[in-house]
Amino acid sequence: MEKIRQYILLLGVLLALITLVAPINQNSQLVFFIVIILLTGVPHGSLDFFVEKQIQQQASQKIVFAKFLIKYLLNMLLYGIVWWLLPTVALVLFIGLTAYHFGEIDWPMRKHPQLDAVLYTLYGFQLIVFIITSHIAAAAPILQQIVQQQISTTVWLQWGNSGCMYSGGGLVIQLLLLTVFYKKIGWTMQVLQQFLLQSIVLIAIIYILPLYLSFGFYFGIWHSLLSFQLIRQQMQLPNNAAGWATLIKKALPFTIIAWVGIAALIVLQTQTPTQWLAISNLFVGIAILTLPHLQVFTKIKLR
Q: How far apart are CA 113 and CA 119, in angstroms?
């Protein structure tokens, strides 16, 4: 297992133990979530232009920044319109896209592209559903606001109880099947053992942490830092302080722009009548930023 994965898992275990010994109040959890998203979640998406530029150069093609930016913003605008007109459809689309994206980051090896894509999308979907449904009491009011009250909190709570059982059970079944058929998909015993350990520890961390810490850890720390690692490899930067400093320097201008936009959104949200509405709007804003990022990131040649 990569060192970076080991360190992140250890950090997650430490965070889970802290919350068990000394529970963290909800306001502190929310601050942690926002800070993590700003420090890691947003910056890893701020490198999309440089990733696209690298990919185009490897294909002996040129990229025009203005054209890239217009396409990027247009995708955000169109997806924002979908969120406005069809929020439930937008939420389902977001979960489907992130299931593929998160799954491909977590998956350890690819020998059969189509089969692997199905397997890691299923894995990512079940993990996302498990994050939400294992904390459904806290998530339900936010989900109700996200879909503009088209689905009530009561219904979300009902679905959540079933969803937790099915997603958790589905993850267990998928891991058990992998132990039987791992050779069929080109894995070695070592790869299997590492993936099982990674998955079991991740699931435990996600379950123990409360909602904001759980989502903040998985998306803001686990996923974002692993994405940074893959972007660094794609851009052929060395795995040392200088390489990471170059990566951060490239991300900084776009990150600052995104920070300003999110700060303005947070200030506006202080005028909303409920905390759930403010959080749901922040989530939708992150989702809109995510769509064009996924379109770029899926072009990275993963191992």
A: 10
Grouping H, G, I as helix, E, B as strand and the rest as coil, residue 209 is: coil
**DSSP alpha helices (H): ranges in the chain?**
3-21, 26-36, 42-45, 48-58, 65-85, 87-106, 113-133, 136-146, 153-181, 189-208, 211-215, 224-234, 241-269, 275-297
Judge residue 122's burial from the number of C-beta atoms within 10 Å of its C-beta, 0-12 exposed, 13-18 middle, 19 or more buried.
Answer: middle
CA–CA gap between residue 4 and residue 224 (Å, rounded): 12
Nearest to 105 by CA among 236, 174, 195: 195
pLDDT in tens, 99-110: 998 898 898 877
Residue of 271, 269, 300, 257 lying closest to 76 (CA atoms): 257
Residue keyed to tokens 């998530």: 139
**For residue 299, what is the DSSP state?**
T
Q: In whole angstroms, how far apart are CA 20 and each of 11, 13, 23, 207?
A: 14, 11, 6, 12
Write the CA distances from 49 to 79, 216, 231, 232, integer angstroms. 19, 25, 11, 13
pLDDT tens digits for range 139-185:
998 888 888 888 888 888 988 888 889 999 999 999 999 999 999 88
CB 146, CB 132: distance < 8 Å: no
User: Which amino acid would we find at residue 139?
Assistant: A
Q: Which residue reads 């053992």 in tokens?
A: 193
